[in-house]
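Inputs:
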Amino acid sequence: MAKDVILGKYCVHKLRTKIINGLEHSQVEVNQKSKGDYMILMNDVYKTYANGVTALNGISIDIKQGEFVYIVGPSGAGKSTFIKLIYREVKPTKGSILINDINIGDIKEKRIPLLRRDIGVIFQDFKLLPKLTVYENIAFALEVIEESPRKIRTRVMDVLDLVGLKNKARFIPDELSGGEQQRVSIARAIVNNPKIVIADEPTGNLDPDTSWGIMKTFEEINARGTTILMATHSKEIVNTIKKRVIAIEDGLIARDEHRGDYGYEI
Amino acid sequence: MHETNTEVTTAMKFKTIMRHLREGFKNIARNGWMTVASVGAVTTTLILVGAFLALMLNLNQMADNIEEDVEISTLIDLTLNEEEITELGNEIEQINGVQTVVFSSKDDELANLIESMGDEGRSWELFEQDNPLNHVYVVKTADPEDTIDVANQISDLEGVQEVSYGKGVVERLFTFTEYARNIGLALIIGLVFTAIFLISNTIKITIMARSREIGIMKLVGATNGFIRWPFIIEGLMLGILGSIIPIGVILTGYYYLANNVSERISYSFVEILPFNPFAWQLSLIILGIGAFIGIWGSVMSVRKFLKV
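Outputs:
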């Protein structure tokens, strides 16, 4: 019985996806005129790696400024590639990707740093520098873009306040808990006021309480108008904090629902 | 905040230069033993390069000295009168590659001979009454390598009785000096490349340990230049640090050599280049090579890690 229900649900999803995908294509055409509204606009994007592995098989998507989007799907379905395309760690094999109206598929190598300054990336493994303090780790992101020392100070203290780590500024990452380290990496990602924040399984290694805390921070950032993309495997989070859900399966968009469900049994 | 995002500031700010310098020095301190290893590699190779350069340049100098001494003695036919002798001198001067033609009368020649023989030369004084020697044109070529060719041309001229330039010996000397030069040059180039390889390898290890840092820098929007500069400064500093000991060794070693050894060698052509300025010039070359291989090594190694 239960199996049938799931199967039924799945069929409905597939149908919906087709409708949405169809809609999307017509939307894209309209968007050519008013694309300014969109933060991320992908049109028929393919990615095949040098070793022959095809990660994405023609993806079209549009994400408006200020949206909060979950990216879900089984492991190896192309979520990571999808995310890496946005901050140009990988280049699409085919198709166009517009970030804030700039086609990043054919931007020059020299422009990539500028693109990345508009995008804050948060990783599951935090990617903090172990020898630097919390403060230095966050200031690093501003030093790199040659901000003035005074601006760096105020901005870093602001974000530390936002993530609730003001009293741990002088600690080094090893002295912090996993959740605190994740909050440091969030602080680093948002310190230069990026237009987009991308989080690749930010709660993957954290206990539920900490995860909810992190999500609260994301919602606060989102409330300021920052677009948030979050790849996750957490059914609980997706089903509780309802947002747009984009499911990627076999390199295709399987589902795109506003206020959607996680839709997978773990 | 976003105005900085719209365009890369091409002109590096003073603050940024200071930051790169600070980072470069900080990295040297931070890398501890790897720094010691890198500097050690530079030091060892530069001592070898320095010693070789000193040897090479001195050998070269000696070879030059010997070559300079090579001259062609043109024995003038005894039947020639004064006018014909002058004409022959002019003809010799016309030959391509001839630098100087000096006339030496038979009396001069005898005086030279007697002098060069020392005490035994006295017995030759008898000939002062009836000098059997010839008048001689001493010919020098601009390029010592032309000696043989010029000598052959002179011997074809009318009124030349004989031409002598140390046939056989000169040829062998030239082949030897040429070999010595080429082998020395090859060895030095080989050593410099070995040093570059060693240094770029060591720096690669220090960079590898920080590839994570570079990756993060790239992800937060650092430009390649911004990432590269501290490493270039680090490489430069490693090269300079690595050349301190070799310079010390060369200065003291050469000072000793120039003051003691050169006095004991009596051959006129074996002349060691004077300490001042040679040792200083050599030190500057060593410093230059050190800085070059340091920078080159770091640029080579950092390149790979920038492709994120």
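Remarks. Chain B has two domains: 12-66+173-305, 71-165. DSSP finds ten helices and four strands in chain B.
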